[in-house]
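During the reporting period, our protein records have gained a structure token line. One record among many is quoted in full directly below:
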Amino acid sequence: MIIVGIPAFNEEKYIAKVVLRSKKHADEVVVIDDGSQDMTAQIAMQMGAKVIRHARNLGKGEALRTLFEYAIERKADVLITLDGDGQHDPDEIPKLVAPILEGYDIVIGSRFLNKTSVPLYRRFGNKLLNRATNIALDKKMELSDTQSGFRAYRVSVLEELIPSERGMGADSEIAIKAARLGLRIKEVPISVTYGEDTSTYNPIYHALDVFATTIKLATIRHPLLLYGAPGIATFGVGLAVGVYAASEYLTSRYISFVLSYLAVTLIIVGLLATFTGVILYTMITVVRDAKKVLNLTPTNVVFDSQALKQENR
């Protein structure tokens, strides 16, 4: 069973065309109306899509979470996600489904594997976001289009990929999770249509959201590397500056207030960063250990309250 899922927010101009063209390649088309204030939901329903509505705009991450949970509940085989703004060509859906049938877990439609006409500011912004996300992938792979919303997923892996990010950082979060789980990911070239700027998201907000997500996920993965190591280095520099200022005072009786303040500041910042890294590492380790214990707890044991009462007698 193939489900096409379309997150949509105020897409009444394009949603009819996207739904109708998607229906040719899917057993079911689902539109997640993320708090639209126009006729997106009504038009999608008239075109034959199932519509799940959020009472208010929660963000792309929440829309994807709803889609993932729906596909899991429906016990589908493949979930296709594509944007509701007409950028993607639904007739390319079979191109993404084919690698899933060959054994891949995720297929990403890349705008940059083809000679696609992408506006310069978008190309530049996506390069920065790709770079940030690929760094967080820990060199497990290099993706050319980490922000593409046109993707195919094997539904059996979705439970491990449900995003916690509510905003635009969800696509990066999913890619990072998939890489760390060792899932098989493939990119295929896709076309994209821009024309007028159809995006409903502010590009600056989009970039900040993705950067914040990658920093958070990298912090969870390597707290000592991101905080502890720089903290120790900063503390060392501060200590060296302090020793130099002290030696100047001992030899010339001259107190350099600039060097003294700099030394104290660097030492304090270094200690705070080091302690932050250690505390985060400890907390993350405790959470991971607790999760392992919970995963070892049998979940298929059913307790019969009546039988227990009989035993207690």
User: Anything to note?
Assistant: The beta strands are 2-8, 28-34, 50-54, 78-81, 106-110, 151-154, 185-189. Residues 292-313 have pLDDT under 50 and may be disordered. The CA atoms of residues 187 and 225 lie 30 Å apart.
